[in-house]
Write a structure and sequence with these properties.
With about 475 residues, this protein is of the alpha/beta class. About 40% of the residues lie in helices and about 15% in strands. The strands form 2 sheets. A 7-stranded parallel β-sheet has the order 3-2-1-4-5-6-7, sandwiched between helices. Bound molecules: uridine-5'-diphosphate (UDP). Belongs to the UDP-glycosyltransferase family.
């Protein structure tokens, strides 16, 4: 009987864009699907596949999630060799589409046919491959609905770029608060910069009307009205937060990490150091997987942290470590610890952590909201400024640091912001808001919660199709 049941499991390819902020939520979504009887296969580029610690992955997922690779055209060295990001993205599109089609045929031959592809919005060509094979196509958004709605409005010519006129011009989409141009995603307010990324983000909407599902990594309460508006256009469902169960509903007790770090985390070092610090005393600082800070900004952050005398745990990726000024970390790492990569969820969940100084990448914000950690937003580019606006003004879970006329957050400002969220006048209100959001996040993924029901609906659809 068991064999028959297995044979009927729907097989879904889950295909994130290459980047930690894309792999994490889509891998976590795969785990949710697996817990509901779906058979997910995560797709990565070959160079990531080769460098993955496969033992970790097997331990983490057991046989429930397969991982297969496709070619991006740079199978030995990944993104290191193409002459530009634009060249890499082009190669990924051309080689990836071909290789994805070959993989689907191979899986068919192996007796493991695929029913659906859930593809990252940054990889819209995967929809064409899905349609070529008559598969269900589910678009997965890793950014907020407001940000996606703004991009949609730009792509359809409903917001005209460049934004011109006086400062009073607002960026406005249905259901979302009006935004000052500088609160809109950077590709919108600095129109013309990073043209290849601009193509990627607008590219999400060229064929969206053909997607069978649009899955958003938020929970409904975060952006109700925007979701309702988007749901008039497409079959939109909120399925987040895709934070490992252990931190939310405890449904899967051993689900304590996303499970696929592209950089190796210093887990034990962080834990031992945090264990030695008093409750709520540490500012955790991280700018995610991709931001490269300007030298001046880096210096201001470093001295702001040092001068504050507040304990800090700072993730500085190896590629950024040359910017660290001498004297920031004392020999015994008493006040501060710098690591190349952390297990972020473990740090956020640790009782010593008192706030999160972040670039406001969408996953980081969602994790802070779901785990109840107050935020100091130091956004740099892409959607981060919009996320920081929501952190401060809409969700009320932190503050956005002010920049000077060169766009730099000065050391004093950083120190003030950290103090404000940890012990300032508004810190109680921020904590109350955090308790509310944490509860709502948990309720959304709990059995029968809004996101859980939406995933059930998707699973039932696959069972019938
Ligand atoms: N992350 C991590 N360790 C770190 C820094 C980040 O595990 O030291 C994870 C973090 O939990 C999040 C992802 O990497 O899930 C970063 O995604 P985000 O959208 O916040 O930023 P991006 O890297 O895409 O700019």
């Amino acid at each position: 009987m068991e064999v028959t049941k297995q044979a009927h499991k729907a097989h879904v390819l889950v295909f994130p864009f290459i980047g930690q902020g894309h792999v994490n939520p889509m891998l976590q979504f795969s785990k949710r699907l697996a817990s509901k009887g779906i058979k997910p296969t995560l797709i990565t580029a070959q160079y990531i596949f080769k460098s993955m610690q496969t033992t970790t992955i097997q331990t983490q997922f057991g046989p429930s999630i397969q991982i297969r690779s496709i070619s991006d055209g740079y199978d030995d060295d990944g993104g290191n060799h193409p002459e530009s990001i634009a060249a890499y993205l082009d190669s990924l599109r051309v080689n990836g589409a071909k290789s994805l089609a070959q993989l689907i045929m191979k899986l068919n031959e192996e007796g493991d046919p695929v029913q659906a592809i859930i593809y990252d919005g940054f990889l819209p060509w995967a929809l064409d491959v899905a349609k070529q094979f008559g598969l269900v196509a589910g678009l997965f958004f890793t950014q907020s609905c407001t940000v996606n709605s703004i991009y949609y409005h730009v792509q359809r010519g409903l917001i005209q770029l460049p934004l011109t006129g006086p400062d009073s011009i607002k960026v406005s989409v249905p259901g979302a608060p009006e935004l000052h141009p500088l609160e809109a995603p950077s590709f919108v307010h600095t129109y013309g910069s990073y043209p290849f990324w601009f193509d990627v983000i607008l590219g999400q909407f060229f064929n969206i009307d053909q997607a069978d599902w649009v899955l958003c990594n938020i929970f409904y309460d975060m952006e109700k009205e925007v979701v309702d508006w988007m749901a008039k256009l497409w079959k939109v469902r909120t399925i987040g937060p895709t934070v490992p169960s252990y931190y939310l509903d405890k449904r899967l007790e051993d689900d304590t990490d996303y499970g696929l770090h592209l950089l190796k985390p210093d887990t034990t070092l962080c834990k031992n150091w945090l264990d030695s610090k008093p409750k709520g005393s540490v500012a955790y600082v991280s700018f995610g997987s991709a931001v490269e800070l300007f030298e001046e900004q880096f210096q201001e952050l470093a001295w702001g942290l040092k001068n504050s005398q507040i304990n800090f745990l700072w993730v500085v990726r190896e590629s950024e470590q040359a910017k660290l000024p001498v004297g920031i970390i004392d020999e015994n790492s008493r006040q501060g610890l710098v690591v190349g990569w952390a297990s972020q969820l473990e740090v956020l969940a640790h009782e010593a952590t008192g706030c999160f100084v972040t670039h406001c990448g969408f996953n980081s914000v969602l994790e802070a909201l779901s785990l109840g950690v107050s935020v100091v937003g130091v956004p740099q580019w892409t959607d981060q400024g919009t996320n920081a606006k929501f952190v401060e003004d809409i969700w009320g879970v932190g503050v956005k640091a002010k920049v000077d006329d060169k766009g730099i957050v000065q050391r004093k400002q950083l120190e003030e912001c950290i103090r404000e969220v940890m012990e300032g006048e508004n810190s109680e209100e921020i904590k109350n808001n955090l308790s509310k959001w944490k509860k709502l996040a948990k309720e959304a993924v709990d059995e029968g919660g809004s996101s859980d029901k939406n995933i059930d609906e998707f699973v039932a659809y696959l069972a019938e199709s």
